[in-house]
Amino acid sequence: MIDVPKKYWDSSLFICFLNSDEDERRKICQDNLEHAKDGNIVIITSVWTIVEVIRPRRQSLPSAEKLTPDQIAKIQTMFEWDWIKKIQVDERVAKKAVELCREYDLHPSDSIHAASAILNIPNGVDVLQKWDRDFNKIAHLIKVEEPKFLTQQLLLIEKTNEKKVKKQEKEELAKSEEES
Q1: Bridge partners, 129 (sequence order)
Q2: CA 20 to 30 Å from 24, out of 49, 103, 146, 150?
């Protein structure tokens, strides 16, 4: 089995994906979700994300209105997709979150995400992806970045690989002609 990148997603990415006003960032999230669906990456998040996405903090999305039961059901269905892996918030995560809150002055919700990602580095979590600045405080503990379009990167990799193959084929052809 090929080892694919495992990206921990903070709730801000899911909120952007669901927010039609977030044009560019929404497209980036959608692109990453498509790659997760295709098995090119694994998206991991805490079950706490479900709470934050259904009722985002007022500071992060001031125009957020209370969701209807139908809207909540649709959002909850998203978290049942096979390509989104969920981490349970257990006592181990809670203790680490308290430590991160205290040491790095993270908001409690952010500390749950940070703890979930950090404690899962041994399970292959490569990076914590976010749109929030707060996580920069813990960038020395886990790689922290904003998500990027993957489709373009994969196309570039494929083109680079094609060029390498063509170059090798030319070299082999030239070598076989020399030997003839």
Answers
A1: 9, 145
A2: 49
